[in-house]
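Ticket #163: bound-state structure for fe (ii) ion.
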Amino acid sequence: MTHQELLIRWLKNTYSLELVVIETLTEHLKKARGYPAIQLGIKKHLEMANAQAGRLEGCIKRLENPVKKEGDGLGKSAELLASAEKAKGDQIVRDMVVDFGLGCLEIASYKTLISLALHFGDQETVSVCKKFLDQEKNIAKTLDKTLPTVIQEYIHRENPNED
Ligand SMILES: [Fe+2]
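RESOLUTION: The complex was predicted; output attached.
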């Protein structure tokens, strides 16, 4: 596999990961009714994921002409993670955990892409992915801060008399 093929493969892996993130967040947005702060966070994350997917598609098109469809392992990992949410009950907490997990997968993917693109000498992909890495880190930081609050809110709503 050439360096360019490897870079394209990882761009596609990360692109498919973003598509899973978009699909998962769209579902989580519907289920977060009654939690306006969470919905706002999900909307921002969704907007970002859509923009990232669009730019990644552009990077793939620039490097690979015509674009070939390929299976990928990362999208499958993300789908597996997203499927962890199927259980009922503590849905809002589960969704937050899944979103956090997907964010960590995205951070690792963008770090990988930056290293590959640096090695390949593709400055455009490096700068696009550095920007996205910063965005993902910000989302992860926000989720890191928000998660304990959501859990407290959930516990209080579900069992208001058990404090
Ligand atoms: Fe993303």
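RESOLUTION NOTES: Helices lie at 3-31, 36-63, 73-82, 91-120, 123-158.
TICKET STATUS: resolved
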